[in-house]
Amino acid sequence: MENDLIFMPSNNTYNKCYVVQSSDIIRGYDRIPSYNTSYNYRDYYINSSYIYRDGSGQWSNYSTLPVCLDNDKITNDFYYRLDLPSILVTFVIINIFAIFLPIKIFSKIFRKGVL
What we know:
Largest sheet: 4 strands, antiparallel
Strand content: 25-35%
Radius of gyration: 23 Å
Shape: elongated
Distance between the termini: 63 Å
């Protein structure tokens, strides 16, 4: 089902395995989990404009390996971002100040100059 897709920023390093850490954090690994392996990861804070924090670790024989999300659930399509509504509101506000206000100011200046 298409509504179940999760947006993740496009990245060629940390895209081997994605794991849900919590309702706010999705972790991307630089390799598929396997025992006795060192790894690097990136935690994406999906409710905070996808800011991230990098780290590293190691899976030992005694580790519980993480279960990766299906690749069918991950998308890089911009329209699935969780912060898209706030981006659109910001875009509209900037356009009001960048387009509408200068038009109003110039129309008042030229109207007074003609009279």
